What does this fold into?
Amino acid sequence: MAMTDPDNLVAAASAEFEAAPTPAELENAKARYLGRSGGVTELLKSLASLPAEQKKTRGAEINQAKARIEAALHARREALAEAELEAQLKAQALDVSLPGRQRGAGGLHPVSRTLERIEAIFASMGFDVAEGPEIETDWMSFTALNNPENHPARSMQDTFYVDLKDAEGRWLNLRPHTSPMQVRYARAHAAKYAGLQARGERVPEIRVIAPGRVYRVDSDATHSPMFHQVEGLWIGENVSFKDLKVVFTGFVREFFETADFDVRFRPSFFPFTEPSAEIDIAFRSGPLAGKWLEVAGSGQVHPSVVRNFGLDPEHHIGFAFGMGPDRLAMLRYGIDDLRLMFDGDLRFLSQFR
Ligand code: PHE
It folds into this structure.
């Protein structure tokens, strides 16, 4: 194609501009036609060698061709700019149909839910809720609770000890049960009413539960080195085993939302209660029907322990119990492995949101 023909030059320029994929390549193509040594300039230079009478028409033709090339350039520039804008908009597009990013909703751990339930039920029966230390003295965990010096609970196989000694020179322990809270709460109560006691006047009743973490050297599908207990204590002038039965049966009825169960007090032994009993329940219907389930240890508080409360066992009598809320949560929610409770696996925990 002879580039000395202005029409050919226009056709070639238009085709190259159209084919330029980017603004940069378009500007390169422009230089080849409209630049200082481009095709149009070359044509204009060739005018010099023409006879005067041809110069005018040829010059007009070249100028026309130049104008058409410029028009093609502008058209392509605009098309490229538009395409670029289009691409940008597409890249930044908002998909308004996408689900939003939400903050994950948390929830209470099944054990926390169970503790809240237990606290609410006992509060409705006039029980205070108290909490105490998880690192205990030897006296609080054992001696005050009438444990003999050589009791197995005191051994390193059953109880975790802390590498620190108390004022008596005995190792501190991670409390193996919540029973020390009987002593702490009752002693504070006795101190508060010491004046009344001294005058032989009536001291208000103690009615308290103490939920919390406890620790034992034990780990399998049904035992965890850390677990929970809820201690109960009711001390008055005339509190009997009958009251324990009424309170505990009422609690089970409220907790499991059914009256369709039996309660059994099975004779047992604890150093701090006499007599002592394990409390078993058996549902009469449902998936657990007919199975005796051990839910608490209990008993009438031993006179020596009442004395360690700072109260006179001649005038103060009552009962205590200790139950396992982890176990109760498992029964209520149908969970079969205690370890699930403390693994922190969200697939398990998120079911309780
Ligand atoms: N402390 C006992 C235990 O951990 C339970 C218990 C509490 C028994 C109160 C009787 C009275 O096994």
Q: What stands out?
A: The chain has two domains: 6-91, 110-352.
